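Summary of Year 1 activities. Much of the first year was spent building the evaluation harness for sequence design. The harness presents a backbone, in tokenized form, and records the residue chosen at every position. We chose the following record to illustrate the format because it has been used consistently in internal testing since the harness was completed.
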């Protein structure tokens, strides 16, 4: 049978461009939308094939829903499909984030801009906290992993490098698994998986503030290291851009988080917004390229690696430990952003209401973001 590769590439481009414009709600919502289209409506994959790719996306660092798009493109149309699917899913969100970056630079200091973010930030706190709770229920599979999570949380609050927290969590879990089983098997597969992570853990170059090369190195490191959830990137960004380099304030980072939540597509397009704020259009392009490039490399390389990882008990334990450590980083970031966002009784009420709506009614996070922005504007109108 002759396969129409060109036709498949066009189908992938059309589908993922549309998804990139409409995929609000975070990675879990993105996955559900992809499953509905590629399994049920288009029959590009079987249910089992989709689940295999979903598992592969969660086994490697990077933005899971973006990597899922890249996996689908590779399966559907080979290497061209890999590039087209990933790029088309990322592009709409990146363009929107860059446009918001332009507006933020031009108008963000105005009272209206401050009012919008005043209402947005408490909703973001609730969304991140709800994601943390849902992920923790899945990731903490034993008392040992729970204890590891507590230790990783302490390390995160002590400002230990996020990459070290992730790697130490994975290594400790693998060591416990190996020792408990009293097996002679070495953790070679786990070490092989960690090698690209360790290779990307070199500190960012000490360049002049907001140099394009410095931006690229920082976001390349983040794209190569973030493991467990897109929200963990906030810990990395805070450590580099706020605490070490002082390129952003805590408030500006919160604004960037809000933009990443407000736009459709990958949360990682927070990098696009930050890049524009720091260095205009060139900064947005460099930051976007840096943070997403590792995802394409990991997906291209994981075809042979993932089956070997799944067969190794030690490698599975390493991944479990890294997931729990990632949740610890999320917890530390959630506490930090909550302190910056909840500054009075109205913001506390907004955060509580958003949390109740998320937990009780599963409201789409987009509506909470819009409601928070509207509440901020209403408050500004009443006080002006």
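For this record, the design step produced the sequence shown next.
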């Amino acid at each position: 049978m002759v396969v129409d590769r060109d036709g498949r590439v066009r189908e992938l481009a059309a589908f993922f461009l549309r998804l990139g414009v409409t995929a609000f709600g975070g990675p879990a919502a993105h996955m559900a939308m992809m499953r509905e289209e590629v399994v049920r409506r288009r029959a590009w994959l079987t249910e089992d094939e989709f689940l295999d790719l979903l598992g592969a996306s969660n086994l490697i660092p990077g933005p899971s829903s973006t990597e899922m798009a890249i996996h689908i493109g590779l399966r559907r149309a080979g290497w061209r499909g890999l590039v087209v699917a990933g790029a088309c899913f990322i592009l709409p969100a990146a363009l929107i984030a860059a446009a918001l970056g332009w507006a933020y630079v031009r108008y963000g200091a105005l009272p209206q801009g401050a009012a919008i973010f005043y209402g947005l930030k408490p909703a973001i706190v609730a969304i991140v906290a709800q994601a943390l709770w849902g992920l923790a229920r899945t990731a903490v599979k034993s008392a040992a992993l729970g204890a590891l999570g507590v230790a990783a949380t302490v390390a995160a609050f002590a400002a230990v490098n996020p990459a070290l927290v992730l790697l130490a969590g994975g290594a400790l879990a693998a060591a416990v698994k190996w020792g408990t089983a009293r097996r002679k098997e070495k953790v070679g597969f786990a070490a092989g998986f960690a090698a690209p992570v360790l290779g990307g853990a070199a500190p960012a170059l000490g360049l002049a503030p907001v140099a394009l090369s410095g931006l690229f190195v920082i976001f390349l490191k983040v794209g190569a290291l973030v493991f467990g959830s897109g929200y963990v990137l906030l810990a990395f960004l805070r450590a580099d851009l706020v605490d070490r380099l002082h390129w952003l304030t805590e408030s500006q980072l919160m604004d960037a988080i809000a933009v990443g939540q407000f736009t459709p597509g990958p949360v990682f397009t927070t990098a696009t917004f930050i890049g524009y704020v720091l260095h205009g259009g060139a900064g947005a392009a460099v930051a976007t390229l840096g943070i997403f490039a590792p995802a394409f490399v990991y997906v291209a390389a994981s075809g042979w690696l993932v089956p070997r990882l799944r067969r190794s008990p030690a490698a599975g334990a390493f991944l479990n430990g890294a997931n729990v450590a990632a949740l610890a980083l999320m917890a530390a970031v959630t506490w930090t952003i909550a302190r910056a966002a909840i500054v009075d009784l109205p913001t506390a009420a907004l955060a509580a209401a958003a949390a109740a709506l998320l937990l009780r009614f599963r409201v789409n996070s987009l509506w909470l973001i819009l409601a928070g922005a509207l509440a901020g504007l209403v408050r500004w109108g009443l006080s002006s």
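The mean pLDDT is 81. Quantitative recovery figures across the full test set are reported in Table 2.
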